[in-house]
Structure formats: C-alpha cells, structure tokens
Amino acid sequence: MKHLLTAAMPRDEAVALLDLAEDMHQIQDREVKKLPALRGRTVVNLFFEDSTRTRSSFEIAGKWLSADVINVSGKGSSVSKGESLRDTGLTIAAMGVDGVVVRSGSSGAPTQLADWIGRPVVNAGDGTHEHPTQALLDAFALRRRIHGGAVRGRGLDGVRIAIVGDIAHSRVARSNALLLPALGAEVTVVGPPSLLPVAAADGTRLGVRAETSLDRVIAERPDALMLLRVQLERQAGRVAPSAGEYITGWSLTDERLARLGDAHIMHPGPMNRGLELSSRAADSDASTILEQVTAGVSVRMAVLYSLLASDHPSAVDGGTR
Amino acid sequence: MTTLLTGARVLGGEVRDLAIEGGALVDPATVDRDAAETVDASGLVALPGLVDLHTHLRQPGGEQAETVATGVRAAAAGGYTCVFAMANTSPVADTPAVVEQVHRLGLEAGLATVRPIGAVSVGLAGERLADLGMLAGSAARVTVFSDDGHCVADAELMRRALEHAAALDAVIAQHAQDPALTRGAVMHESPLAAELGLTGWPSAAEASIVARDAMLAEAAGARLHVCHVSTVETVEVVRQAKARGIAITAEVTPHHLLLTEELVRGYDGRFKVNPPLRADRDVQALREALADGTIDIVATDHAPHAPEAKQTAFADAAFGMVGLETALGVVQQSMVETGLLDWAGVARVMSTAPAAIGREPGYDAPLAIGSPAHVVLVDPGARAVVEASSLKGRSANSPFLGVELPGRVLHVWHGGRRTVADGEVVTGGAA
After folding, report:
1. pTM of the model
2. pLDDT tens digit string along A295-313?
3. FRET pair for A99, CA 20 to 30 Å: which of A46, A161, A289, B235?
4. Closest C-alpha among A165, A159, A164, A135 to residue A296
C-alpha cells in the first residue's frame, strides 16, 4: 500500500512527481477541465481542522480527474461527538472508499490512519508535523520560475532558499526542509530564537542551516524567500515576540524588499499583509503567491493519480515511516 | 509445612539450599528433608521478593484498566511481593477512607503486600496539604506521600509537606516536572521532537525541580525521594545533593533503562510515558547512576491503560506503560548482562533499598535465616518474547510487546505463601 505521508522522498521520486504535475498542469489551458483517469474512484477529504484553500484544492484536483470526492469535516461529524480518530478512519474505510486525504491538528494522525485503515492516505497537513503537498507545490512553482519552460527532469540544484517565520510550529517549513534539499536546494530557516526548532548537535535545525537575522540572510542575496504565516496571537509575549518586534526583525518590509534584489517571494497563504510581508512585496512581480495556488491543484492531481490510478506505476512512496 | 529449595544460587552467588517454614526462612540443616516439599532450584537464582515503590493499581476509579486484584497478579508474576500503590485514584488517596480501602483490597487479594501511598495535596491539586498525619496514622500506615502524575510545583507547599513528612518519618516522592516548562509536552524535547512536530519536554524541567527540592529537603531535615529520574542532568543534580549529605533517594524505571525516544517515530501511543523516553546518552547515564548508587532503586511506574486511551492521536494518548511483569527481565538485560550490576545488586535496587525507603519491614536481610520468606526463583538463562498473553494484569500497554527479554520468574513465595509456581500465578487457595 502506498501513501503520501511525508515530503521526505528520494530526488528521482520528487522529480517524477513534479513532472507528472507538469502534465496535469496543461489542463489549466483547456476549456473542459476533466480527465477520466480516476472515474469510478472515491476520495474522501477527511478534514478534522478547518481549511478552505487546501480542501478546495484537493477537491478540484479530484474532480478534474473524475473521481467522486466527498468532504467530511470534523465539526458536526461523529468526530465532534467523541468518536476516536481510529474509529472514524475505520468507518470511512468500511464504506469502500479508495483513498483518504486527511487534515488533522494532531501530528502523526495520517501516519496512524495509514497503519489502521489499509487504504492510501494523503497527508493534507498534520499538526506541527508536515504538509507534503504544500512543499511539492512550492517546489513546482519555484522550479517553473527558475527554469522557465525547460523544467522536466530538473531539480533545484544550487538554488538558495530562505524560509522565514515561526519555524518551530510550521508544518510547511518541515516539509520544505525535507523536500527542497532533496532537490538540490540550499535551505536556511530564519526566525526569532524562540520560534526555531531544537538544534541538533551540529547546529542544524530540521536538518538545515538556521539563522536568527533576516537582514544577514538578505545580505547573502538568496534566490527565494519563503514567508510563513505567523500567528502571534497564540503566544505573544511568551514564546513569540510582539507584532512590533516581529516586524522589526523578520517582516519583509518595503525597506528589506529594496535590498532583496530579484529573489522570488513565496508565501503558502493565507497572508497577513503588513506582518509577514508588505503589500508591495506581496503584489510585486517577484511574488509567486498566486502561481503557488494554481500549482497546488496540479500537484494534488499528480498525487491522487499516482496513488489511485490503477494503470499508474506508483511514483509516490510512503517515504520514511 | 516446610518447603526446601535445593541448590539455588543465592543472590546469584553461593549455591545452597533455602528452607521455608511458618512464613519465614529457616536453617535447612534443621528441617526434616523427607517431610518437606522440595523444589529443585538448581541453575536458578534466588532473590528476595521484589518491592515496587511506584505502582498504579487504578482502584478506586480506574477499574477498566486495573484493579488491586489484577495488579497484584501482575506483581506476583513479575516477582514482586510488595507494591506501593500510587495515590492518583478517583477519588484520590487523600483521606484515610481511601487508603484503608486500598489496603483492605490488598489484604483480600493476598498475592503481595499492598502499601497505599498518600497524596501530598488534597485532590492532587497542589494547593492545600492533605492530612498527612491522619493518613500515616490510619490502618494503612502510609509512609510515602506523592502527587505522582502531578508535580508539587508550589515551593511553599513542597516545603511544608517535607516538614510534616520529616516529623512522621515519611518520605515525599516527587514527580519532578516544572509545569510551566512542559505545557502540552508529549515527548522528549530534542531534534527528533522537532522533526515529528511533537511538543517537547525539556530535560531542565526535571533537573531544576530536583535541585529546588533538594535544597528544601536539606532545610527541612526531611527525606526526599525523586520518582522516575529520566535525564543525565537530573543524575548530576542527585549526585551533588548526595555529596552534600542531603537525604535524597532516586528511582529509575525499567523502560528508561532500555528504551529511547526513537520509538516515538511511528506515533504509537504505547511509547508515550511521563517523563518521556529520552536519548541514548540519558539511558547510559541512568544505567551508570544505578550501578554506582546515585540512583537507589528501580521502580516500575506500572501504569495500566485501557486500549482506547492509547489507540488515538499521539498528543491525545494517555501517558504510561505497564511494567510489573517485565521489570526484572529488563533489569537483567540492561544491568546484569552489561556487567553493571550483579544479582546481589539487583536484590539491593529492587528489594532491600525500596523497602527501606518505604519503611516496609522484613526486607533488610535478604534471604537470611529468620527473615520473612519473600523469595523469588529466577531462571536467568531463559529468554522469551513478551506477548500480550504473557501479561497478567488487566492492561497490555507494554512497550516491550514483541521484544525478547531474558530471565523467567519461576517461583515466588510471599511470606511463605506460594504465589507463583512454575511461572504461573497461584490464584486462590491458602498458604
């Protein structure tokens, strides 16, 4: 049984998946956006946590592949009535679905479901752990920016990417810190010291270089800056700095934008304009933000196709389990 | 009735016979060998009955996970003849009525002595002291007080508890965990926790409380016992406190002697425990500390849970592991087979020393003539894979399922009464 639980995967698998997403991307130019690949397949989007963009993106991806897509949300379902994650998963599997896309506030929940239910599971974001399709779509969008029309078969070799924000609590940062280096990129995570994850003995965090000064990182002229959504209201003044302190140190302000050169500006959304980045940065030509959203559908089509199409030699593995 | 155990390696050393008569060990030379029941103990190691200073029997209130009766069955199977039952029941063991109930249930179950532990604070809430004197003076004669599961975080409450305990010759057993540093913590704080996206429990949250408590115990002239030491930093603090002459004792659990945080990778709730499984350097330091006496005893922290409490998202799963049945095998593997401890040392850390800390009489002269007949015969050469079916308590949340462990508890006598025969718990029947 194959799943997509983590963005940790070998380079050739990642490249193959991105190339497949390129195939899927061509549907964007068609008048009738429908492929018959998953006709007769049923995918459940099991979302224990609110999410508009990720759920919609998976729903569109499934529908464009002609799968029957059912959305089950945590709120108002049996989950809110005390049913366990395991029982909910077993119940849905017992209905004969072909695959489950799961979003959960609990780190590891997709891994556990995959063990329990015997159906392909796609991790659509779990707690503060991973968000592998987000990392894939980030890589997809960035690969297009860097290599233009000749992307197939290529990685992100030598591309220097800084990920900025609340690294410690970000599943987007984790998945990108796994996937982008596998594609050859040099990743640095940047944030306030209290929002960086625990360092390993060699000083790396999440296996990549860590920095506390965004200004030092900008002085190195990175090729791309990925700004994460920060939720300062959660622990402001204790774990997280105040908004003022954050903007002073880690926001992509107009002033920093001027020093950034022609680096690509990425954000997984939803954005807090004025906090993570200025409106000028978000709306600049360097911004890939809307391209990332479009890429999301193509990447998720590629993932669903890899896992569920009967004629496809699966390109996606569970990765490290 | 006389029972003669022939050819045992007593405390792993000298090969000789042991004789049990009238609940006590007697001189084998004086017994009528023809009339005695004989147990061939050749090749077996004779140990004193084991004493667990840290057991959760769950009754009253948690009977779906364990009862006193099922808990002592697990205890007997593991070679234990005395267990101290933690106070975090429902209702909490903060009144004479509750500790006397647990005491009485232990007498009825009969397989091992059950010594109730009293709560330090009312309802384990950490706000007001429980009536320590009334608990000590009850029929359950409480000598150990603990809010285990919760740290007595308030320094003044801890100070006063130590002062009262000193006057009662009781000990405060502290679950050392600074709550402010461990909000939402579910595993060891480490690069692995960062990778798994799980909230970490920093080592300093344990060591800092132990350092504070050691100072408070010194000032109060009281005895302090540190529950389940899990980190290299805490070992160092305990070592320094002992060097300073503070009356501090410490325990380590079997699981912290053998397992590391790596097991959490699969998000299996069986490996969620508090304090959490730590890094390999911690495991090595804990073994060395147990060998050199910095850590005084092994205590199981046997914590049974129903399956539904564990088969859930890791962050939601209950903390705790069962351990009574597997403790001796884990200690053999981690301490004896590594050459860090001999069997006499095992007797010290799993029987004599915990009994002394808990003021349980009868364990001060292990296997000596005239001592109560708390005897365990272990086959150290046996090896077996732990299965759910080999666990004798009500719950199977063991981290060792599927793991091969050495040693098999073959026979146990509790005060002369046979509680385990040929590896099976003897249920019912009198002595």
Report:
1. 0.94
2. 999 999 999 999 999 765 5
3. A289
4. A135
